[in-house]
Amino acid sequence: MPDRRQYRFEGVEPEIHPDADVSRESTLVGDVTVGADASVWPGVVLRGDIGPVSIGQQSHVGDNAVVHASTIGDRVMVGHGAVINEATVEDGSLVGFNSTVNTGVTVGAGSVVAAGAVIPEQYDIPAESFIRGVPARVTPLSDERLSAEEIFSKYSSGEYGDLVDRHEELFDE
Q1: Checking CA distances to 136, which of 15, 54, 85, 100 falls within 20 to 30 Å?
Q2: What is the CATH number of the domain that holds 129?
Q3: Residue 30 in domain
Q4: What is the pLDDT of residue 1?
Q5: Read out DSSP for the chain?
Q6: Residues contacting residue 105 through CB under 8 Å, at least 6 positions apart
Q7: How many domains, the chain?
Q8: What is the torsion angle, in degrees rounded to the nearest 10, for the CA atoms of residue 148, residue 26, residue 31 and residue 7?
Q9: 32 in a structural domain
Q10: pTM summary value
């Protein structure tokens, strides 16, 4: 049986749905829940100590992302190296590579956070927004001709979507 990096914190241990795929090279601490058909890739840290971490159904957390005391909705993609700290990312949103979602932020449903964006503390982003820049600027997705659903479908299905199965050693039981 492979070594798993899952740790109890103050008597609470991570809960992983049997249909979720969590890399043995990720770290889960404390009050962490991973929903059905979600994937958590190598190097990810999910730390539920000062508050719970919830990864919704069919959500994907990419390599080296850090999610601390945050809620990730259903059908969300979190890109490689993203940091989400004490925040909420609502259903159907995308968080780009190396972006930062700071404390108290809510990213509205169906939104796209561009790669490298930094969202300052306490922002409440409306649904279906495009967030980019440092500090982040927010515009409606419709102004940008982007669709979070189209992007999610492209990267969460087909050849990319079956990567978990193709990386059997990263996810073996």
Answers
A1: 54
A2: 2.160.10.10
A3: yes
A4: 40
A5: ----EEE-BTTB--EE-TT-EE-TTSEEEEEEEE-TT-EE-TT-EEEEEEEEEEE-TT-EE-TT-EEES-EE-TT-EE-TT-EEES-EE-TT-EE-TT-EE-TT-EE-TT-EEPTT-EE-TT-EEPSSEEEETTTTEEEEHHHHT--HHHHHHHHHSHHHHTHHHHTHHHH--
A6: 87, 88, 119, 120, 121, 122, 123, 124, 125
A7: 1
A8: 180
A9: yes
A10: 0.91
Residue 122, both tokens = 């306490």
Residue 173 lies in a domain: no
Distance between CA atoms of residues 89 and 105, nearest Å? 8
State the pairing for strand pair 77-78/118-119. unpaired
Mean pLDDT, contiguous 10-residue spans, the chain (173 residues): 76 95 94 96 97 97 97 96 98 96 98 97 96 95 79 66 76 66
Q: Could you tell me the residue range of the domain that residue 49 belongs to?
A: 5-168
What one-letter code names the amino acid at 65?
A
Residue 90 lies in a domain: yes
Residues 6+ apart with CB under 8 A from 159: none
